[in-house]
Structure prediction request, 134 residues.
Amino acid sequence: MPTEVARSDNHVITADGGVLTCRIFSRPELTAEEGATSARRLADTLVAEVSRPGSPVSALLLDMRDGPSVFGPVTRDMMLELLTWSTWRGLRTAILIGGAAIQRLQFTSLCQSVGDLAQVFDDEQVATSWLEGR
Prediction:
């Protein structure tokens, strides 16, 4: 059973065994600055949770299906920083996307920048299997 770790204006982070899942929600009323601030909070929470002593986290799932279909340069830089960090830590990171082509393009580009430990998926079951190394 997943345990809630954190909640913000546009995301919820849960832990279930070794997988830390972050569901991101689109909130059109948030300004670009507020969205970037929330993205920074999200990244800081994920890093803190993974880095705490005794943390069982071995993988991240970023669920963007209900998130914004596009992100700006500040959020892109933060996401690149997060993916670079998770790769450096040896964490598999699956990004689960919705149907927006631009979302796929942006996240595919980010994943290609950091290597094989970050991948884009449009099927939750396939993403989960990949996170578990199957």
Summary: Helices lie at 32-51, 73-88, 101-114, 124-131.
